[in-house]
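Lecture 7, part 2: worked example. A protein chain together with adenosine-5'-triphosphate.
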Amino acid sequence: MKEPLIVLENINIRTRDRSILSIPRFELFPGEALGVMGPNGAGKSTLLKTMALLDLPGEGTVFYRGKKVTDHSVLDVRRRFAVALQQSLLLDMTVHQNIAIGLKLRHRSRREINMKVEHWMEVFKISHLARKQALHLSGGEAQRVNLARAMILEPEVLFLDEPFSALDFPTKVQLLKDIKQVVSKTNTTTVFISHDLTEIKYFTQRMAIIMGGEIKQAGSTAEVLSEPNAYAASFIGEWSRLLT
Ligand SMILES: Nc1ncnc2c1ncn2[C@@H]1O[C@H](COP(=O)(O)OP(=O)(O)OP(=O)(O)O)[C@@H](O)[C@H]1O
Ligand SMILES: [Mg+2]
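Predicted complex, written out as C-alpha cells:
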C-alpha cells in the first residue's frame, strides 16, 4: 500500500451546540480520485475544507506526507493544493488574467505565465475566450476557466466541491471527460464531492459516504455502490440498485 498523502486523525469540528464533523481517521492516497457523497448538510464541504487546509480543525491533526501540519507549515502545504467550487468565483477581468492570477501571485516570469495560460486554455478548450470578460461567460465556460485556474498551479491535490452540479447534461459530460483525462495524465490526486452517482461512478476509484458529520462507509466505488452498508443504503441504495 502506498503511503497516504493526507491523513486526518481525531478531527472534531463543532459549532456551539453540535458536532458537524467527527473523523477518527481518514486517509487520502496519492494518485487516487476519491468521491464524497452524502445528504445536504452532512459535512462534505467541511471535510473538503479540512483536507485542503482551508480551515484548520479546532480538534485533531492533519498529516501531510507523514508530517503533522502546524500553524507554521500550513501555508506551505496549502500551496500544493487547488480548490474548485460550484461557484467559480471568477474575478472581474479577462479569462486570460483570471487563469494567470495564481502564478502572478507566485511572482513567476511573464513568459512562463503566458506559456502556461496558453497551455491550460488549450487543454480546457477555452483559447477563443482569452480576451473575454470572465463575468460574461456562461456557466459551463466559467467552470472551464475555474478548472484551468486550478490546474495551472500544478497542484498535488485537486479538490472539487460540486463543480458540475449547475451544468447541463452534455456540458457536464464533456467537462467530466476532459477533467478525468487531465488528472490521469498529470497524476493529480483528486477529491470530488458530488450528489450524482453516475459522476462518482465515472470519475472515482474510491468513495466515502458521509452522514451527520461521520464517514459511514468508505471503500472502492464499485464495492460501496454494489454493497452499501445500512447507512449508505438508506442514502444511495435504491438509486444504486437502479443503476447497477
Ligand atoms: N462556519 C460554520 N458555522 C456554523 N455551522 C456551519 C459552518 N459551516 C458549516 N456549518 C454547518 O455544518 C453542517 C455541514 O455543512 P457542510 O457545508 O459541510 O455540508 P455539505 O455536506 O457540504 O452540504 P451541501 O450538500 O448542502 O453542500 C451544516 O449543518 C452547516 O450548517
Ligand atoms: Mg457542500
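DSSP finds nine helices and ten strands in the chain. The chain has one domain: 6-243. Keep this in mind for problem set question 3.
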